[in-house]
Amino acid sequence: GLAPEDAQVLSFDFSIMNSFDYYTGLVFKAYAGGLPDPVGSGGRYDSIFTGAFGDGIEVPAAGFAFSLERLEAARTSVEDAASDGDHAAGRGAEGPLRIAVPKGSLKADTLDVLEAAGLDVSELRDPGRHLIVRGSDTRAGEGAVGDIEFVIVRPSDAPAFVGCGGADCGICGWDSLIEADLNLLQLVDLGYGLCTFIEAEPAWRAGQAERNYARRGSLRVATKYPRIASAWYAERGVNADIVSLHGNIELGPIVGMTDRIVDITATGATLRDNDLVITGRIMDCTARFFVNPGAARLDPRVRNLADRLAAAVKDKHFEPVAGSAQ
User: Fold this and answer.
1) Closest-CA residue to 165 (of 219, 112, 91)
2) Do 109 and 54 fall into the same domain?
3) Would the pLDDT of 77 be above 70?
4) pLDDT of residue 17
5) Among 125, 153, 174, 272, which is disulfide-ready with 157 (CB 3.0 to 4.6 Å)?
6) Can you give the residue range of the structural domain that contains 170?
């Protein structure tokens, strides 16, 4: 049995899954030192030796691995020393809760929902040239999160800051999370910042994409969102050559470089101005509150904040989009 003081630092999370299909039972991950990544993992794989020692002989098995580098980083984090630089520095629950918040079009609604959840965002409304500003929780007692640091980032950079341990949690669009492809946990669909991912082509080139596909066996597509586009075409069984661009992707099919584009639209004004017509609807996208796995399992403040944000979204009627892909 475990000593009472040891039992207090253990948690059971039935959402953990392992990518290796040879596991047959319990799997585990061990988090420590405020690190975003697990310091160790393993589990049961009772069928691994099936047939190795003769028919009918069952050999129970279990295995695990620990990263020496992450264990060292966890140790130095606990001792308030610098990590070795190979992994994100650990951030325990002793310091301010650090939240990556987006600038740009998501900023206004993000401030509103954070304020509705009880956080003081006064310094965040006019930060000047500061990249990190202080905040605080206006509530006390159960569910309070205490002191806060807001890290002001581009929405597309928020997943990297959270995933690599530079922040404990953050807010950005769902598209940024998909494109980042990092080990992160979405906790709340905040409902605002609605945009729609679409496929489009010039109206005057109707039918050309199909002819090109029949001739060359692939569809050429310009986009700023290669992961989203690639996954959508793969699901439909379409062979697509993705051309990644960073701006003015509408030019791709207009100048004949690509057949179509995959982009986001809110009002459709840009499509109309460039005589583009929608040929496919991919998904709706809204802002999400997300955390790194270490903080989610070691720091109760991020879970408390998630509950409060979910309540604020409901009260402010930022309802998640009906039919959104999850």
Assistant:
1) 91
2) no
3) no
4) 64
5) 153
6) 97-189+287-316
